[in-house]
Fold this sequence. Notes:
This protein is 37% helix and 26% strand.
Amino acid sequence: MKVSVIDNEFVATMDRELRTGFGLGGSAKCATAFLTEASVQFLDRVLSDVRKRKRDLHIQLVVGLYLRFTSPNVLRRLLTLQHANADQLEIKVARNERFHWKLYLFKSHDGRTTCYVGSSNLTIDGLEKNGELNVKLQDDRHAFDQLNVSVRANTWLTH
């Protein structure tokens, strides 16, 4: 297992880390308390890039409604993006109205895992600005499995 800190200083940003993780293909499970219009644009660019590179990627995204920060317009745009990318993007709303997680799990086709747990929402500030702190766990299958079970058990609503 390799442990790193991503604090959005210099070259180590969550923006760069997530783009790399999505770019590898495979599967991604993400949980964020807040989304903005820029978040939807970020995901749209990621999906477009993955298609251009002919990568197979499936993203599951859990969105919180904590403090009503994520606007209804952003949720509508996100659902539109999901419909346009149904084979690659699955959106769910967190069950718990106080949901405040920031979690990103990646599993590549060859079984390598990367987990990010920290303070970065899937927003421009969360991905690019300092003041955030995230821990990156690479190739720790046990941590990946535990976090994956927790995401499934605690955050998904069916639609």
